[in-house]
TrEMBL record:
Name by which UniProt lists this protein: Phospholipid-transporting ATPase
Biased composition annotated in UniProt, kind: Polar residues: 1376-1385
Gene that encodes it: ATP10B
Single GO biological process annotation from the record: phospholipid transport
Compartment(s) of residence: Endoplasmic reticulum membrane; Membrane
Catalytic activity: ATP + H2O + phospholipidSide 1 = ADP + phosphate + phospholipidSide 2; a beta-D-glucosyl-(1<->1')-N-acylsphing-4-enine(out) + ATP + H2O = a beta-D-glucosyl-(1<->1')-N-acylsphing-4-enine(in) + ADP + phosphate + H(+)
Amino-acid positions noted as binding ATP in the UniProt annotation, renumbered to this chain: 420-422, 671, 713, 737, 776, 855-857, 954, 960, 983-984
Record key words, sorted: ATP-binding, Endoplasmic reticulum, Magnesium, Membrane, Metal-binding, Nucleotide-binding, Translocase, Transmembrane, Transmembrane helix
Family designation: Belongs to the cation transport ATPase (P-type) (TC 3.A.3) family. Type IV subfamily.
Organism domain of life: Eukaryota
Principal place of residence: endoplasmic reticulum
Length: 1400
């Protein structure tokens, strides 16, 4: 269908109208049609149009009993190493090239694949049991034959079934809501299982099904449902219902009940299944653990190719040697055997056969067991990581979650961290701090003092006893009455749906956690500003004089604006209201006057104290306050809604009349903070339904607004609006709140009235103050009486019913409504820093990690938070780049500059790092767009190399991910992204390691992350301790594996020089198999899981030790080749000392090989012992057990193997060796000679080495007191070195500190600087440029300034004083000496902390 929107005049939607053929083709692809299953009961399934959709049974297993073996083998052969060894085993079956018995050659690869298959089977069995529990849960499905709802398993639910759900029941599939027992047609959901959000959400019955009888009749449902195809977007859903008369009713996500959520506060709901099983949104989002390739694995794959090259080189030597040896014979060698035709192969062909034989013989040069060992080690590391008590958060009862099991070692190599701000660095607990109304700023000093001294207490008991405006004598007696208990969140059966999280502690959930989201004491209690409180009371009294016949023209008086401001705070939200006695019971209506409430309280006190404030069933307040409820009809309620108490103007009336302790459940902490702020000024939100919202005024009057429409907040519009009908004037009013950068552009033209222009300028100035104090800002506005609401609503309904281009149509209607707004004021909300954030950032910085903050907040807010968390220091030079065009960059393109900043010709080297600690860069989203679109990425990265901190403000989720990818790919560094919200998902997925914080904004970030933590401070130990351990353990274990295999296989290679390169061995093949699989496999596993080169305390005290992982100290090209050379040397010693000992003797082949095998085992185990830095009982036991196991197996095998390896059998070989003193002498002398160079090198390194790792290992051996003193001295020396480097800057730093500002003409500045912009700073600078001293140099259009401010003061600029006034301009260092005094330094604008800033 085509839509034309007409707003007084005809206005069409551009690019929205397409041909009928295009629309039909598009709809056919996108349509998902659902009908009722009832007409098709008892008929063949193929007649049911819903049979094409999936059933509700879920299956997360990968295998079945029949498919397990072939499918698992196929998957394992995708690994190059497994495929290589299988090919070698198959090659060994050809007699012309085999080196061992064919069946024996299969044993190693079979054992490895069997172990892997058992691990896969065990994991799949766990998934099968989990699926079985979920599929066999029960629900009620309507049955036409029984004429009632019958109980069925979840797996039997199908698309088109009618499902009946009751309170506290989990939803089995995605269901379209058709009926609710709530008269308002509302259903309440708890989505904690799905997204982790703890607040309740409302879902509404589809329009047209709201006014029904007490029972829904599924058999009367004959509509056809058309919606979008299944997708994983949890927040979006659109479609329409086509009625038998061909009319359509649109619906969206507000009518969809998602699988896994829990019904709350609603007795019964009924709906029709839309998506089932794996097509539900929850299952489409359940991607499970993520698998990435770690940096060590990528390095290891390269080294394996080096090993393949070494193997081919050794095999080539064997083939050439075999040919040369054969060529020495004058005739045919007597041991040559002809083929079936009596022919002898040529020497070249025999050399080729020997090449293949040598590959089979030396195959273990490639460590076959390394891959399995790495997987087992990582599982062990994850186990200890998950059980670290320091990474456990007691408040949320959650520990760290490891969702990506194969990149633990990357935690020890991070070089760049990209962090979100809100909810990651801050608590995301919003506290109301300040507000400005109609240009008048109210500082709320008393509230600020309270926040400085109050400690946050989230105790339910204190919530009971505390009353905001006074104590009610009888309230405490009601505290423990009533049998109904608050509903516990732990009863939502989270474990049934989300298996990667722990069960919540029931006891903790009830005792210490607030049952309502965003309702801690510090968030709820707001101390009002006394001056504003007086004005509020006066303005509220005038509000009562309004009547439908006394509607005046729109005015901008302070009194009316104050009431509108607080009404907007109370109404413009989606907050749900409940009481403290039953936090999960919603207050549906409150149409009773305070006088009647007071009477009910008195009756309650006198008659019965056994009833609680609210009953267990939804009811109005009158019913819940006493056993004899007073029923108020709708007409009487309308009259009562405007009544007030007799002495309502008396300040002390609250101390006599109890105010129910309401609980506000908001979808965001900002909404909760604003509602609590409105309540502090006695504009109390007391009830909310889909049709009405009730607010109590200061004098006790209850105003019930008709809620006509709600335009929810989204990241594109960045605002929210509600359309209400005023109960006194019957006017239709739009209240809007949103980001100041958006609202300011939607205001009506200030040129019409001078007062509006002045209010707007003052408000913008106050917003700048708030942002500089680190407060989150929101603008509040209204739209004066809306006369075209009916027309607008019709177009809105048409847009909602459209399946094609619905999003564009809805956006168009919203944009038309939210224009020509009248500014009421703005709020400043504080988002407090999380505990331990400054310390964590300081430690990570000392560890050599570059920290960037990518946030969507205002620039000033982000900078202030950066100072608070020590991301920026007071002494830092802060460069700020704000521009909307490339002009400034292009003018200096020929020079080595970036937006006017001169760049040194060389990048900073590692020796310069300490000399560049004091430069910060702040950049906004618009400038980022120019960087990405103008191919300026290289220049941008070049500049950031000199900055210790980078803040990207006003950045979108896409820009966040682009910045992460840019740094990761161009600089070739290891990156980590951390965030807590859905807007951080793309950034988290783009980084090498993504960490989600399970905080106030749900679980989307966690579900997309590799690791999940609850606090930013946990990042310190996660990286500095566990990251270092995981990397050092695994890196050294991988190097050890390469050494072990090369050292052992070289023994066979040296023997070929003495056996004519015939491919024979001096060691029994069974011994060779057991050597790698059993005798030397367990010590590396224990080493990789338990070894600690440095203690956790030392790693935390000396963060710079983390740099070893960043530099890949333990595993890089040099360490690999050193290990290879060491392996070659040790193999030479282990072979030739026994060879020289037994030379010219008549011992057998295995008698010669057994001492060599034993010596090699001892050498390899002792080499492992030298690598171990931690010695525990487990380490000793594993080494001794491996050594004893070798002798036990050898003795038993040699005793029973009489003819198992004919013609050379190892019978009784070990027993004879143990009786020969020469064997013991060799086992002592040879390992000592082999390990002596390594031991000497380690001793020399420990004595003379200056490595921080070695120094820290020495500190760990000291007593605790001496260790602490040594660490303190270490840190003092480092601080002295850092100070010395800062005093003597290098040339690059000097160039950055002295910018040469290009000169422009006044006309150029007039064209670029005076443009109307949302940034007030740009406008102020433009005004200053036009009124400057003619002799002053002109800055770049983006303006350049160097501001040295005086120490911070609590003084606040007066409302009439511009932030960038004349005195402020004189402080710009480009034009005056920054160190000399200036009038600006002593002005009232000195409230800022001491800092240097340069803005471009």
């Amino acid at each position: 269908s085509k839509y034309h929107l007409q707003w007084g005049h005809v206005r069409s939607l551009p690019n929205k109208i397409r041909s009928e053929a295009e629309i039909n083709a598009s709809n056919k692809e996108r349509k998902y049609i659902v009908v009722s299953n009832l007409p098709f009961e008892g008929r063949p399934q193929k007649e049911n149009p819903n049979q094409q959709y999936k059933r509700n049974q879920i299956k997360t297993t990968k295998y079945t009993l029949l498919s397990f073996l072939p499918k698992n083998i196929f998957e394992q052969l995708h690994r190059f190493a497994n495929l290589y060894f299988v090919a070698i085993a198959v090659l060994n079956f050809f007699p012309v090239v085999n080196a061992f018995q064919p069946a024996v050659g299969l044993i190693p690869i079979c054992i490895i694949m069997v172990v892997t298959a058992l691990k896969d089977a065990w994991e799949d069995l766990r998934r099968y049991k989990s699926d079985k529990i979920i599929n066999n849960q029960h629900c009620f499905i309507y049955n036409r034959k029984e004429q009632d709802y019958v109980q069925k398993h979840w797996k039997d639910v199908r698309v088109g079934d009618f499902v009946q759900l009751q309170c506290n029941e989990i939803i089995p599939a995605d269901i379209l809501l058709l009926f609710s027992s709530d008269p308002s047609g509302v259903c309440h959901l708890e989505t904690a299982n799905l997204d982790g959000e703890t607040n309740l959400k409302q879902r509404r019955v589809v329009k047209g099904f709201l006014h029904q009888e007490s029972r829904f009749e599924p058999e009367l449902f004959q509509n056809k449902i058309v919606c979008e195809k299944p997708n994983n977007n949890l927040s979006k859903f659109k479609g329409y219902m086509e009625h038998p008369d061909q009319t359509r009713t649109g619906f969206n996500s507000e009518s969809l009940l998602l699988r896994g959520c829990t019904i709350r506060n609603t007795e019964v709901v009924v709906g029709i299944v839309i998506y089932a099983g794996h097509e539900t949104k929850a299952m489409l989002n359940n991607s499970g653990p993520r698998y990435k390739r770690s940096k060590i694995e990528r390095r290891m794959n390269i080294d394996i190719f080096f090993c393949v090259g070494i193997l081919f080189f050794m095999c080539l030597i064997g083939a050439i040697g075999h040919g040369l040896w054969k060529g020495k014979f004058s005739g045919l060698p007597p041991f040559d055997v002809p083929d079936a035709n009596g022919n002898f192969p040529s020497i070249a062909l025999q050399g080729f056969y020997m090449f293949l034989t040598m590959i089979i013989l030396l195959q273990i040069l490639i460590p076959i067991s390394l891959y399995v060992s790495i997987e087992l080690v990582k599982l062990g590391q994850v186990f200890f990581l998950h059980n670290d008590i320091d990474l456990y958060d007691e408040e949320t009862d959650l520990s760290i979650q490891c969702r990506a099991l194969n990149i633990t070692e990357d935690l020890g190599q991070i070089q760049y961290i990209f962090s979100d701000k809100t909810g990651t660095l801050t608590e995301n607990k919003m506290v109301f701090r300040r507000c400005t109304i109609m240009g008048n700023e109210f500082s709320h000093q008393e509230n600020a003092k309270r926040l400085e001294t109050q400690k946050e207490l989230d105790s339910d008991d204190e919530d009971w006893t505390k009353c905001q405006y006074g104590a009610f004598p009888g309230l405490s007696t009601l505290r423990h009455t009533g049998s109904a208990k608050p509903l516990r969140r732990s009863q939502s059966a989270r474990a049934h749906f989300q298996y990667h999280t722990r069960h919540r502690s029931m006891g903790r959930c009830n005792s210490t956690q607030s049952p309502v989201a965003f309702s801690s004491t510090i968030e709820k209690d707001v101390t009002p500003d006394q001056g504003l409180l007086t004005k509020v009371k006066d303005a509220a009294l005038k509000l009562e004089t309004l009547t439908p016949h006394k509607v005046t023209k729109p005015s901008f008086t302070t009194g009316s604006s104050i009431t509108d401001f607080f009404l907007a705070l109370a109404i413009c939200n989606s907050v749900m209201v409940s009481t403290t006695t039953e936090p999960r019971q919603r207050i549906r209506s409150l149409g009773t006057s305070l006088e009647k409430i007071h009477q009910l309280f008195q009756r309650l006190k006198l008659s019965s104290l056994s009833q609680s404030f609210s009953s267990s069933a939804p009811s109005d307040l009158g019913e819940s306050l006493g056993p004899n409820p007073t029923t108020v009809d709708s007409d009487e309620q309308d009259d009562l809604s405007t009544q007030s108490c007799g002495d309502s103007t008396d300040v002390g009336y609250q101390s006599l009349i109890p105010e129910p302790e309401f609980c506000y459940e908001a979808e965001s902490p900002d909404e909760a903070a604003l509602v609590h702020a409105a309540r502090a000024y006695n504009f109390t939100l007391v009830s909310r339904t889909p049709e009405q919202v009730t607010v109590r005024l200061p004098q006790g009057t209850l105003l019930t607004f008709d809620l006509l429409y709600t335009l929810g907040f989204d990241s594109v519009r960045k605002r929210m609006s509600v359309i209400v009908r005023h109960p006194l004037t019957a006017e239709i009013i739009v209240y809007t709140k949103g980001a100041d950068s958006v609202i300011m552009d939607l205001l009506e033209d200030p040129a019409k009235e001078k007062k509006l222009r002045k209010i707007r300028a003052k408000t913008q100035k106050h917003l700048d103050w708030y942002a500089r104090d680190g407060l989150r800002t929101l603008c509040i506005a209204k739209k004066l009486p809306m006369t075209e609401y009916v027309k607008w609503a019709n177009f809105r309904h048409e847009a909602e019913a459209s399946l094609d281009n619905q999003d564009e149509l809805l956006m168009e209607t919203a944009q038309h409504l939210e224009t020509q707004l009248t500014l009421l004021g703005a709020t400043g909300i504080e988002d407090r820093l999380q505990e331990g954030v400054p310390d964590t950032i300081t430690a990570l910085r000392e560890a050599g990690v570059q920290i960037w903050v990518l946030t969507g907040d205002k620039q000033e807010t982000a900078v202030n938070i950066a100072h608070s968390c020590k991301l920026l220091e007071q002494r830092d030079m802060v460069y700020t780049i704000n521009t909307e065009s490339q002009r400034c960059y292009d003018m200096s393109k020929t020079e080595h500059k970036f937006f006017g900043i001169p760049l040194p010709c060389q990048a900073p080297s590692s020796t310069m790092e300490a000399a560049v600690p004091d430069i910060g860069l702040v950049i906004d989203g618009k400038t980022l767009n120019i960087i990405f679109q103008g191919n300026l990425e290289k220049k941008f990265l070049e500049l950031t190399k000199y900055c210790r901190s980078v803040l990207c403000c006003r950045s979108t989720p896409l820009q966040k991910s682009m910045v992460v990818k840019l740094v990761r790919d161009k600089l070739k560094v290891m990156t980590l992204a951390i965030g807590d919200g859905a807007n951080d998902v793309s950034m988290i997925q783009a980084a090498d390691i993504g960490i989600g914080i399970s905080g106030q904004e749900g679980m989307q970030a966690v579900m997309s992350s590799d690791f999940a933590i609850t606090r930013f401070k946990h990042l310190k130990k996660l990286l500095l301790v566990h990251g270092h351990w995981c990397y050092s353990r695994l890196a050294r274990m991988v190097v050890y594996y390469f050494y072990k295999n090369v050292s052992y296989v070289n023994l066979l290679f040296w023997y070929q020089f003495f056996c004519g390169f015939s491919g024979t061995t001096m060691i029994d093949y069974w011994q060779m198999i057991f050597f790698n699989l059993f005798f030397t496999s367990l010590p590396p596993l224990v080493f990789g899981i338990l070894d600690k080169d440095i203690s956790a305390e030392t790693l935390l005290a000396l963060p710079e030790l983390y740099r070893s992982g960043q530099n890949s100290k333990f595993y890089k090209m040099s360490t690999f080749w050193i290990a290879m050379m060491d392996a070659f040397y040790q193999s030479l010693i282990c072979f030739f000392i026994p060879y020289l000992t037994y030379k010219d003797s008549d011992i057998g082949v295995f008698t010669f090989g057994t001492p060599i095998n034993t010596i090699s085992l001892i050498t390899i185990l002792l080499h492992q012992a030298m690598e171990m830095k931690t010695w525990t009982f487990i380490h000793w036991s594993v080494l001794v057990a491996s050594f004893l196991l070798y002798f036990v197996v050898s003795l038993v095998y040699n005793a029973i193997c009489v003819t198992c390896n004919s013609p050379t059998n190892p019978y009784w070989i070990m027993e004879k060796q143990l009786s020969d003193p020469t064997f013991y002498l060799l086992c002592f002398v040879t390992p000592v000679a082999a390990l002596l160079p390594r031991y000497f090198f380690l001793a020399l390194q420990g004595t003379l080495g200056q490595s921080p790792i070695l120094e820290a290992q020495k500190l760990d051996k000291l007593p605790k007191e001496k260790k602490d003193l040594a660490i303190q001295e270490w840190r003092r020396q480092k601080e002295r070195l850092s100070t010395a480097c800062r005093v003597a800057p290098f040339p690059g730093n000097a160039r950055l500190g002295h910018l040469q500002v290009p000169h422009f003409t006044e006309q150029e500045l007039r064209d670029s600087s005076i443009k109307e912009s949302s940034s007030p700073m740009k406008r102020h600078v433009g005004d200053w440029v036009l009124n400057r001293d003619k002799s002053s140099p002109l800055p770049c259009p983006g303006y350049v300034g160097h501001n040295q401010r005086s120490p911070s003061s609590s003084a606040r600029p007066s409302p009439d004083e511009h932030l960038l006034g004349p005195s402020g301009y004189k402080a710009f260092g480009m034009f005056t000496d920054s160190q000399t005094g200036s009038p600006g330094a002593s002005s009232r604008g000195s409230h800022k902390r001491s800092q240097s800033s340069l803005t471009i």
